[in-house]
Amino acid sequence: MRPSEDNYLHKGLRKNLVNNIRAKGITNERVLEAIQAVPRHFFLDSAFTKHAYEDRAFPIAEGQTISQPYTVAYQSQLLDVKPFDKVLEIGTGSAYQACILAEMGAQVYTIERQKKLYEQNKLFSYARSFPGIRFFYGDGFEGLPTYAPFDKIIVTAAAPFIPEKLIAQLKTGGVMVIPVNEGDLQRMLRLVKNSDGSFIEERFDQFSFVPMKEGKKN
Ligand code: SAH
User: Fold this and answer.
1) Which residue among 13, 66, 186, 192 has its CA within the 20 to 30 Å range from the CA of 202?
2) Which atom of ligand 1 is nearest to the CA of 214?
3) pLDDT tens digits, residue range 37-77?
4) Mutate to test the pocket of ligand 1, among 58, 64, 104 (most ligand atoms within 8 A of CB)
């Protein structure tokens, strides 16, 4: 069962988490406000509430994880989300990152390849309470051509390479934040698309993500 109460104790734990993430170098106040606002314990079974505000990744269903809060904040800061930005997310997972982006005012289109996770999110009333989030069951390597182009794209699984179809679905001047590499560690990249379809690449820190896999899973 998921908890649905958010009391002063949870808010206090989140304040500590925000201070912790700030001390690790996150400076974007809108990102920190979103972390303060979104009850991360709602995304875990009530048995794990005490782990919700540790700055760690945590296992969810189907062998997947809810990303570490610092990683969510890091990617959100690189994406520099502005209100009404149209953002494509690859790897819905727990929907925590999607809720952080929506809390920051983005219009979020999020894709998950695992049907069970997609279906759980359809029943997750907190995530469903954001009118700015649309959930899709599909293969993130394909993106969402029907809804393209996007201002921004965030990939939250380890990409073996930069998917060309995703670059194609970005607006000129659009930004993609993507962890790339097949090994244990991925390099966080930020790409900015040029008008001729090429892109400028910046390299950031290394992180460890679950793999981005081809195709849908039933
Ligand atoms: N953003 C998530 C992180 C989840 S972990 C959160 O905030 O919790 C990465 C997720 O990406 C997993 O749920 C995994 O099933 C999904 N995934 C992996 N490859 C994918 C693909 N090709 N398309 C869509 N989702 C994918």
Assistant:
1) 66
2) 22
3) 999 999 999 999 989 999 999 998 888 899 999 999 999 99
4) 64
